[in-house]
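Researcher: Structure for this, please.
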Amino acid sequence: MELKALLGKRTFVYFISGACESECLRTADALTRVRLSQGKNARRLRVLAIVLSPAQLSAASQLRLDMPETIVLGVSAEERQQLVSQFAHASGAPAEGESRIYLVDPLGNLMMSYPADTDPSDLRKDIGRLLRASRIG
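Model: Predicted structure, token format:
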């Protein structure tokens, strides 16, 4: 999978490296709420959770049940390194277990990155400004 596959909408992306437990579910819920809080602009956003271990894909079933609008994808071991390297930021590719939220623009470019524990209200404000300023996606 490449970033270009995310064309058309702004996409929140986060990686699930282990079982999707409370932190993972909390992040997905926060991103879903941020998306829905954008009102008519909510249709311009989507949430994508990428499971980095094929063995853990079934463990993400609770995420699918609780938040059906969240797209959950699993990647093979071969795809993992290539995919993770596309999300490198100033400090390099995300470290094992590092939790970050990435924002990919409608053209497939990595735009922003936030720590997973970012206050959802700050994220909501940033995204609201971005959607008002930009008409693409």
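Researcher: Any notable elements?
Model: Strands lie at 10-16, 45-51, 71-74, 100-104, 110-115. The mean pLDDT is 83.
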